[in-house]
Amino acid sequence: MSTIPSHSRPGGRSARVRAAVHHAVEELVTEGPVEDLTMPVIAARAGVHPTTLYRRWGSLAELLGEVATSRFSGDIVVPDTGTVRGDLERWASEVAKDLADPDVLALMRATVGTGPGGGSACTADRHAQLEAILERERSRGGNAPEPEHAADTLLGPLYYRAIFTGLPADPDWRSEEQTS
Question: How many CB atoms lie within 10 A of CB 114?
Answer without folding.
Answer: 20
